User: Fold this.
Amino acid sequence: MNYDIVIIGSGITGASIARELSRYKLNIAVLDKASELPAGASRANSSMIHGGFDDKPGTAKAKFCVPGNKLWHKLKDELDVHIDECGSFVCAFNDDEIKHLELLLSQGKANGAPGVEIVSGDELRKREPNVSPEIVAALWSPEAAIINNFEAVNAMIESAQINGAKLFLETQVTGLLFDDKGGIRGVATNKGDFTAPIVINAGGTHAGEIASWAGDSSFKIIPTKGEYFLLDRVAGTFVTSFLFSCPSKAGKGITVLRTAEGNLMAGPTATEQEDPEDRATTPEGLAEVLKGARKLVPNFPVNMNITTFAGVRANTESGDFEIRALTKPRGFINAAGIKSPGFTSSPAIAQYIAELIREELSDRVKLTPNEKFIPERRNVPRFLYLNMDERKKLAEKDPAYAQIVCRCETVTEGQVIEAIRRGARTITAVKMMTRAGTGRCQGGFCCPRVAEILSRELNIPLEEITRHGGGSKLLVGKTKEFLLNKEGK
Amino acid sequence: MSEERKFICVSCPLGCGLTVSLNDSGEVVKVEGNTCPRGESYARSEVKDPRRVFASTVRVKGGKLPVCPIRSKTPAPKGKLFEIAEEVAKLEVNAPLKIGQVLIHNVCGTDVDIVASRDLAAV
Amino acid sequence: MNNNIDVLIIGAGPAGVAAGIGAKKEGAQNVVVLERDWDLGGILQQCIHPGFGLRTFKEELTGPEYMHRFIQQAHEVGVEFRTNTMVFQIDKESNTVWTMNKERGIEALNPKAIVLTMGCRERPLGAIRIPGTRPSGIYTAGTAQRFVNMEGYMPGKRAVILGSGDIGLIMARRMIWEGAEVEGVYEVMSWPGGLRRNIAQCLDDYGIPFHLKTTVTKIHGQDRLEGVTVAQVDDHMTPIKGTERFIECDTLLLAIGLIPENELSRMAGIEIHKVTGGPVVNDLLQTTNPAVFAAGNVVIVYDLVDNVSDEGLIAGANAAKFALGRIPKDAKRIPVKGGENVRLYSPQFVTGEADTTIFMRVTHPIEQACKVFAEPGLYSQRLRYARPGEMNEVKIKAEQIRNLPDLSEIVIDIQPV
Assistant:
């Protein structure tokens, strides 16, 4: 299979790059080992669109964060992605921390982050009455926002697909291919070779290993686990914006926020580990999150918890993004070490990658604008947020929209079928695209129903349906057959 | 040798703790701890011939559901339950089914019938 | 055309079907029960084991058999059922009920009175925050029960059951009968969650070990569950170091409690009780919205379906009375208070318009003779014991309330004697 561009990884970085490059007449292949998107750190993160004050001027993070923030405020309409433009507060408990706020304020100004200012604790409490009375001041960033990260990644990749890019899931890159001039020729995968004169490494926590295959050992990825609590939407009125603690060396500290869909959330920890795939939550991590959450919001209603989860972020030794085109092998581009503010920065990083290709690799691939580029993409209809007339119209057009599948999040059968039409093959894929199973019963009600619809629509036996691909089957067979075929029978 | 045996009565949700005294020849001489006559008869049966209601499903062709719940009409010998489970597993019936309809007569020679425990319409 | 419904009942489980019967018997003309499933009966259709209705029918029926009798009776008295019809919104001010159905699309109903009978749901894994991975193979016992009993599929080969609620115990035996293994049942408390007879006939009969004061502390496996770590807990429910044990299993079934299902009640602006998780109700089973009544597990989670049906009959009858203008607007509202060892109870208010039963649960077991009572001097009954897993009742006659015109509160309690 021959392409112009192969992108390894379809997290928010890879997906944004794919979408940006789909503005040009290019054959693009996006590969991801997961069975559904988003999978890695793009699934399990704080869903923050950062204000741009947190990054040291001069770093890559500072360079991309503010432009990325601006792009998201525009992309939300273009790509039909939920963003809560709620702003963020960094909370200070003492004079030392106020000094830190002042540093952040000056960084924000240097980075061009608009509207950043320091407010008193009382002003914060006017907006957020449940925060600790001990908070003395806070840094307010009006442009900070919270995004539905599940939707955002799917929106980006769908937009790229609408414009011709090809997505290959369950496709794991196992090696790189080189031409006889020492340039890149493509990648080898479990599904065969994908050749292309340009390969972009957006491999998240695996990006360091992939870069090493290209002979690049200039950076090392430090997988860093972040654990979270996610609470019922009933608790979503507790906090209505994004609250940071003052950062420590380990990370930005525990935050408390209301997600774009109205859940209360707290996290993350920042635990360095060897294994890039270890997403298990731990007693220590969860205890740390709870402690941090209670410091910010003393009555944090943890009894309304609906799930805990962990993501593994691609931290780097430099602490900065690692974005560049290698001179050897030519055609290999790293978009690596994309951790916080990675989600925010990704559309700006994508534009920069296009620039890199235009300026440094035009001998390998020419960027000719695709006049047919369609910037708009619509989400799977969100029944929950429609008004009654819109709901009626939808149900009249397609009766599947008059059947609730997920009662917690009011997701209809029509939405599940639409997600399947757009490529969902697993319970988790449907969840990412429709929110079915993200509510307070965590799929207890809808999982069997979604499995049935997947089985029916895809015409595959129910016992073959998986939670998230691989060996994650829901069932082990049919009753009776199971009993009669048991060993020893 | 006389003996004392303890059971939890399963006849009703109260779950009384029963103590059964047996004489040298294994006959029940006394039942204590029950709060109703059902407890006494449960204890006597439990010593001599323990029985349970078996409840499961059978495979159905052409029904609104792929399986239909069934039960043993009366309690079946406890020692035969797994044998009955296998007999029931082998069975496949055609919809429609009526509640109480006998699906297996005298299952495993126990003199107990297996009956459908709901109506199940055909599709 | 839809505005001539006298009593609209949401959910055709045991409470809803009984409410329909109660409303018709009280004289309401148009009584409609909405059911989201294609079938009537609610969760009892998947509870295929015997154990239901001993008090009502003097014999132990399976769930489907129990419902069959009530559904027949409901048809006889002229209750209208609409299946495949889900209520997805109730408007606060107007009490408009929004329904959806594939044939009828989206409709607004404006009944004179509403009865909430949506039942309850199972507590999910997230509620207890067990560390570890998130593989497939973790189900609430009820979801597994649906797979096995309604759809004919096996959720796994070797199960560990966390929590000792009755559905978990019943599913232990059910899995065994279908040829699976059940390694054990683990309960974090020092007493069982379910009935003792279910421990006897579902666990002891099959030699399934039952571990009290033990819980799952870690989940293992990336794709499918590969095992769990269990550990004993101390009196503060903290895992005790050194007692951890890894158990290989491909299935974890959760029977860690039930929660009344009140999304719609909240939308309708009804006050939800912090402890029961159900609507605050009076003895007429009227919520804080006078046109809305509630019965069954949506109010408080019962042990016995007989109680659920009884409460359904009462709520249906009172909703009919409301629709017919026969509930006095100036009814009393005497608060019920619980004593120290009373964890939850319902109703929370008494009007004295009818005889009433107050259902309650103790916080801690009392394993000795004790007394359940209602002050001032309204009720007293000796008990052999009182356990959290088994509800207790206080019965008060309307006449007793009438005879105490200055009664300002009722206190219920259970104490050792």
Q: What stands out?
A: The interface with chain C takes residues 7-15, 17, 52-57, 59, 64-67, 69-71, 78, 81-82, 85, 99, 117-119 of chain B (CB under 8 Å).
